[in-house]
Give the backbone structure.
Amino acid sequence: MRIAHLSDLHLHVPGAIRPSDLASRRLFGAANLVLRRRALHSPAVARAAVRAAAEAGADHCVVTGDLTNLALDAEFDLAAEVLAPLGGWERVTVIPGNHDYYTPGAVRAARFERRFGPTLWRPGEPDAYPAVKDVGEVRIVAVRTAMIAPPLCSFGEVGEGQLGAVRRAVEGARAAGRFVIVALHHNLHRRGFVSETIGRLLDRDAVRATLAEAGADLVLQGHDHRARHFELPRPGGGAVRVANCGSSSLAAGGIDVYEIAGGAFTVERWENRGPEGRLVRAA
């Protein structure tokens, strides 16, 4: 089975910000967007990343959050349109990032869940995190780390209740012989001083310990816009592989594609190095 990983699209719609939108913590985010972020993240590259997942023959895609910049309706509409070619529940899993929960109003209106809940829950299932999906030989445990953080902060948290459910989902899949992927937005590694001060996963140590003890095979994460792979040692031997694909909308961004078979996997890197508008497999 082939699983593609995309993340951190940060899609922006020119002209979507109204003066009334700035009467909240969006004021700080809008300033960052105008001064820096909108020049870095490209909807065209995000579309190319989606096309690359198809070219790579992905059976399923996991998108680990931050689809939007300011959690505006127009941004969510664009994100839904960009990701639409990936398909429905059987073909794609999309989780929220901190930018998708940017304001209390966006969370109360369930803007993310209205567009992307159908990739997490079947009709009639409770809209609860973690969402647990069995796709072929793989179990995907989709975790919400996004929370309403103070202004200028991007903290995340899993929480004891959700973490307990994650442990049960991972252990149950392991007992059934399934390969287990845990998807979450906030990174499990340490970053620089500023990121650690204002944007870390608050219960990171507990999450790392739980995933190692329960025996997840692969963790797909976002938040850090650079590609990165590392391991969490399991208490009984072996390790959990943790991976960032980086931002899939940066000029130098890309996606990772995992070939899973017999409880093991290999990984391919697809990057925006080819002709304009196309990602190619890295050497």
